[in-house]
Amino acid sequence: MKNLTxxxxxxxxxLVIAVAYTLLSWVSLSNPTKLVIVFxxxxxxxxxxxxxxxxxxxxxxxxxxxxxxxxxxxxxxKLEKKEETSSIIHEDxxxxxxxxxxxxxxxxxxxxxxxxxxxxxxxEFLGNVSxxxxxxxxxxxxxxxxxxxxxxxxxxINRDYLQRADKSVDRLIHIVEDLETISQLEAGHLELDMDKxxxxxxxxxxxKSQELVARDSSITLGFKDHDEKPREAMADKERIRQVIxxxxxxxxxxxxxxxxxxxxxxxxxxxxxxxxxxxxIGIPKKHLPRIFERFFRVDKSRSRERGGTGLGLSIVKHIIxxxxxxxxxxxxxxxxxxxxxxxxxxxxxxxxxxFRKTSTSPS
Length: 363
Ligand code: ADP
Fold this sequence. Notes:
Strand order of the largest sheet: 2-4-5-7-6
Order of helices and strands: HHHHHEHHEEHEEHHEEE
Shape: elongated
Oligomer: single chain
Structural class: alpha+beta
Bound molecules: adenosine-5'-diphosphate
Largest sheet: 5 strands, mixed
Radius of gyration: 36 Å
């Protein structure tokens, strides 16, 4: 009986009614002739067929048609297949209705799941943001109160407390800047200023700028096998500077005293693969799948103590994905970590190559 048209349903039901009625009249009438039996069968069949067809058509069928039209309207908003509706309605409507209602229910369920996940993310995000902001704000409040309650006149602490408050303000600014970047990236539109540049020269600049910080932890920074051959890439240079800086800063932040950070490039036909390796504390295997999530940190106190916001890697991933490229991590706890990402090679084109690209970053 599955997926029958109203016409087929009417014929089958009328047949059953006509056979039942004919059998009854056969038993109740004394010696009915064949002609009477056939006449009864035919008459009952025709009448019940007409009644069924009318009832299904006018009451049930019309109601289903209405529901179907509503679903089709929703669908056509997305698919723009309006003209299909009228022709389908006269065809195998039941089968189509069944299929479409299923598909519609599935899409509604998925939409609800997505909204629930979004809501959960919003709650977590707000919780994380307020938690991150609380520490520096309370620190600043503490220093100011101490200064107000007499510390201002105490030469041994006044300058020190002001400097500490200033450090906490810097931290607040850092958090807010990272939050701003992430909200821009997650809004989906990242304007990329695509240009041709030498990614090795850019990396050299960044390594130089981080030398002092690295020296504090006795970490050496450099290129693997001293390979500094130029490599031309096509990307947004400033965004890629942000990516490489973040990965190098992390390699120092989570590196070990006397360790080293090395940058290496691989030729992958259309792309360059950039690898940044350290021999630091590494990341436990169970945490690797979550490492690019916002606010995810393996060791919260070590991260905060060294000025981390927990947003760096998620910003890095957004930027790389906005370029249509990929980023990966390999790491062994206690041995070290390697972050690698791809960049499009610049094609050999003599003309001015600069162009803007608006990318919708996947979230
Ligand atoms: P943070 O500001 O905390 O450094 P990130 O998003 O940059 O935030 O990194 C997230 C977490 O990933 C860090 O807190 C740290 O636990 C881990 N991590 C990142 N890079 C490294 C690395 N090179 N070695 C070990 N752990 C790392």
